[in-house]
UniProtKB/TrEMBL annotation, chain B:
PANTHER family: ABC TRANSPORTER PERMEASE PROTEIN (PTHR11795:SF447), BRANCHED-CHAIN AMINO ACID TRANSPORT SYSTEM PERMEASE PROTEIN LIVH (PTHR11795). Coiled coil: none annotated. It comes from Methylovorus glucosotrophus (strain SIP3-4). It is a multi-pass membrane protein. This is Urea ABC transporter, permease protein UrtB.
Length: 388, 305
């Protein structure tokens, strides 16, 4: 029987991986980078929440959602609405026709705050909304899809369409959402200025701690009996169903958890970057976030964080210096990861770590455990297709 | 109603309906290719829109050539054929290098073809520039005819519709009346058995995929008559065409036609009465809603997996 700490940390190798990641995020990066760059890393780490959710959903559950961006966006928008209301107090907006409402509403001839903005006047309600709204949204989508046994590529296409709908809606309803510019000019949170350097350091650490919290949560889910069932469902859905489990309920639950994790990332994005826009909601960001998880290794929670950091670092470097080359690289990355490294960085690590004497024993132990637990590990993708 | 008289509403309906028909034609051509690739082979080709762009750029380039040598009135038919052949050839190549390794991993195919679409978009941007270009249309495609003084129907729309009808009929002949179509359908139904009776299933896959891409190329040629072409033109249609295929029922050719018609008409008419973005939202939302009620699509009885 595994103890709780085993479940959370994932054995010796898990501890090592987590410790290295914590060292990198909590110590090395803050010491080595100036605040501008560190804020950038903080921004990348908010995407890591989404990558994490995809490891849960896609790598382990076999459910590819191409609409995780919408949950990220919903979380981000909830936070942005709260901050925007605070930034739009009657004094600083006194030049508007209607003081006290967000500037873009004033530009669009709105004279009062719409009803669905009302809850975002209070921080507790906002935090509740960040956690609940995307989850309910995911529940509705998941319920409608999974109860009717829609899965695989159909699920991917439909989530993609929903992400598209949401982004068009946000762009189209300028008066309510800030339109294509999004919600900008966010200043304070309960009077605390989020734009100062010290605030950025604090937010970076809050973000990092939340990220580790989500890693623990995901690992707890994956190492429990539930995680085992998730893998079983991915590989042989019919067999799990015939064993008496309600497959759709498990899928809905996973989808909801993934949505919530993504939403937390979105909210932290808004806090650290200071705005939210529909360009993080639509199809392109949703698919890009899948590649973060794929590069890190679709089965590996820690890999997802590294994958996110690496791809975004590459994106920043290349799009600054060779913007032309970046799309080629990004496209090539999609193809290469899928064709040659379906298990991503984590897969490469697993393959080569055994050559390092120091790590040899741990890797061997880990392998043994995994083969004991579920013989199906490593067939990350091959079995999916056979099913369909 | 909306401040228009009944006669005006009637005219608007006819004209918007007709605008919807040209959109329907392009959407149908796109979706036909997808329906073949996705419906028959189960492969999600996210780069399908870029194959359409190949067709569009081919037409634009040929029109420039035609202007230079003074055969503007005749090049268009030729351009459609070249667009088809080029897209077919590139599709053939893509299947050979990429897709055939991924048949057992449909979700991965989706990601790989998305990557391919990014690469292709950048190739278009590097070689043709980021600015949108449009083809020089032959005279017989310009202008419009007016059955009544208030109704104005553009000729290029009629032409695109005719083209879509011809291609649809061709696909129908190919799939249901030719030896090739028989082999394709046999492979789809039972790959192992098809192989056992001597069908080269790998070759069938390759030609099927390439054919789907080729039709997207024709869609691109048709597209140049109604709008201008840019590097990301294909992405405008990709979600819509997937929705058409899924909504119609993946394996059903008739379903694809019906749902392309429904979606294009709904968007076109709604866009007149609401803003263009809200028209699109309303249409897509309706489709997603209906798909939630009836996930197998309108014209298929198969359970989705």
């Amino acid at each position: 029987m595994k103890t709780l700490s085993d479940k959370l940390l994932g054995g010796k190798q898990g501890v090592l991986g987590l410790a290295l990641l914590a060292l990198l995020i909590m110590v090395i990066l803050p010491l080595g980078l100036d605040i501008f760059r560190l804020n950038l890393v903080g921004k990348y780490l908010t995407y890591a929440f989404v990558a994490l959710s995809l490891v849960l959903l896609w790598g382990n559950g076999g459910i590819l959602s191409l609409g995780q961006g919408m949950f990220f966006g919903l979380g981000g928008y909830c936070m942005a609405m709260f901050l925007k209301l605070e930034a739009s107090d009657p004094i600083s907006t006194k030049i508007q026709t209607t003081p006290g409402i967000p500037d873009f509403m004033d530009w669009n001839q709105l004279t009062a705050i719409p009803w669905f903005w009302e809850p975002f006047k209070s921080l507790p309600l906002t935090i509740l909304a960040i956690l609940i709204v995307p989850t309910i949204f995911a529940y509705i989508i998941g319920f409608a899809m999974f109860k009717r046994r829609v899965g695989g590529v159909y699920f991917a296409i439909i989530t993609q369409a929903i992400a598209l709908i949401l982004s068009i809606l946000i762009v189209g309803q300028q008066g309510f959402t800030g339109g294509v510019n999004g919600i900008t000019d966010l200043k304070t949170m309960l009077g605390w200025d989020i734009r100062t350097d010290s605030a950025k350091y604090i937010l970076y650490y809050v973000n990092a701690i939340l990220l580790f919290g989500c890693i623990f949560l995901s690992r707890y889910i994956l190492t429990s009996k539930f995680g085992m069932l998730l893998l079983a469902m991915r590989d042989k859905e019919e067999r799990v169903r015939f064993s008496g489990y309600d497959v759709s309920d498990f899928k809905i639950f996973t989808f909801c958890v993934a949505a919530m994790i993504s939403a937390i990332g979105g909210a932290m994005f808004t806090l650290q970057v200071g705005f939210m826009s529909p360009s993080f909601v639509g199809i392109v960001p949703s698919i890009e976030m899948v590649i973060f998880a794929a590069v890190g290794g679709r089965m590996s929670l820690i890999g997802a964080v590294y994958g996110t950091l690496l791809v975004n670092y590459g994106k920043t470097v290349f799009s600054e210096t060779y913007p032309e080359l970046w799309l080629f690289l990004m496209g090539g990355l999609f193809i290469a990861v899928v064709m040659f490294f379906p298990d991503g960085l984590a897969g490469i690590y697993q393959k080569h770590a055994r050559k390092i004497p120091f790590l040899k024993r741990w890797v061997a132990e880990e392998k043994q455990k995994q083969t004991d637990a579920h013989a199906s590990h490593g067939k990350a993708s091959t079995t999916l297709g056979a099913e369909a | 109603m909306f401040g228009y008289s009944m006669a005006e509403i009637g005219n608007i309906m006819v004209m918007q309906g007709f605008a919807g028909l040209s959109m329907f034609s392009v959407l149908l051509l796109m979706a036909l290719g997808l329906a073949i690739i996705f419906g028959q082979m189960g492969v999600i080709n996210m780069a399908h829109g870029e194959f359409m762009t190949i067709g569009a750029y081919t037409t634009v380039m040929l029109s420039k050539l035609a202007v230079a040598y003074g055969f503007v009135n005749y090049y268009f038919i030729f351009a459609i054929i070249v667009a088809f052949v080029l897209a077919f050839a590139i599709g053939y190549l893509v299947e050979f290098t990429l897709i055939r390794h991924l048949y057992k991993r449909p979700l991965d195919t989706l990601l790989a073809t998305w990557g391919l679409s990014l690469v292709m978009q950048q190739i278009f941007r590097s070689s043709f520039g980021a600015k949108e270009v449009s083809a020089e249309l032959p005279e017989w495609l310009l202008g419009s005819f007016q059955p009544t003084p208030d109704i104005d129907i553009p000729i290029n729309g009629v032409f695109v519709m005719g083209l879509a009808a011809v291609v649809t009929f061709g696909v129908f002949l190919f799939m249901f009346r030719s030896q090739w179509g028989l082999r394709v359908r046999a492979t789809v139904q039972n790959r192992v058995m098809a192989g056992a009776v001597g069908i080269n299933t790998k070759k069938v896959d390759r030609v099927t995929f390439a054919l789907g891409c080729g039709i997207a190329g024709v869609a691109g040629a048709a597209f140049t008559t109604i709008a201008s072409t840019g590097p990301t033109t294909g992405t405008l249609y990709i979600v819509d065409s997937f929705m058409v295929v899924v909504f119609g029922g993946a394996a059903s050719l008739f379903g694809t036609i019906a749902s392309a018609f429904g979606i294009a008409q709904a968007q076109s008419i709604l866009q007149f009465f609401m803003t263009s973005s809200m028209g699109k939202v309303a249409t897509l939302l309706t489709i997603v809603g209906i798909l939630m009620m009836r996930p197998e699509g309108l014209f298929a009885s198969k359970v989705r997996k």
